[in-house]
Amino acid sequence: MTGAKGFVRMIDLPRVSDPRGDLTFVEGGNHIPFDIARVYYLYNVPVDAERGGHAHRELEQIVFPLSGSFRMKVNDGETKSEYWLRDPCKGLYISKLVWREMDSFSQGAVCMVLASRPYEEADYFRNYNKFLTAVRKKS
Ligand code: TYD
């Protein structure tokens, strides 16, 4: 699975719509390119908050805007791009070694993340220069 940017791509989930509303589902082993080890979600996010500001050594994630919208800025150390997430059935896959920043949350936005590994602080790069050094060593 590759996308235009390689290190990120949109993942489309099914949407079942009828007059009672919309339903979207996620099946491990079908829609998600890794085994889901963790689910977490962000909520009660102030509209002027900035989240993220880190990259991961091994973790892969898919970020879904379950409600409302927000911006994700991503950067693999060479290429930067940004995505406005606002459709609950479209998630952004983010590979390892991608610096990400999130902002412009709408009032009441809810962000759900599917993750390939449990929470491990040792997997984080929280310093941008250390992230860049690690990326350049790999290429
Ligand atoms: P962090 O990943 O920095 O949040 P964000 O990228 O959304 O800004 O995590 C914020 C805090 O929450 C940090 O102290 C670690 C903790 N945390 C967990 O304990 N478990 C988790 O699964 C996650 C994602 C974070």
Q: Which molecules other than protein and nucleic acid are bound?
A: thymidine-5'-diphosphate
Quote the beta fraction.
Answer: 35-45%
Determine the number of helices (DSSP H or I, runs of at least 4 residues). Answer: 1
- Gap from first CA to last CA: 20 Å
Rg, Cα atoms, Å: 15 Å
Order of helices and strands: EEEEEEEEEEEEH
Strand count, sense and closure of the main sheet?
Answer: 5 strands, antiparallel
Helix content: under 10%
Q: What is the mean pLDDT?
A: 95
Can you tell me the overall shape? globular
- Secondary-structure-based class equals mainly beta
- The overall strand count is 12
The stretches of 5 or more residues where confidence is low (pLDDT under 50) are: none
Biggest sheet, spatial arrangement of strands: 1-9-6-11-4
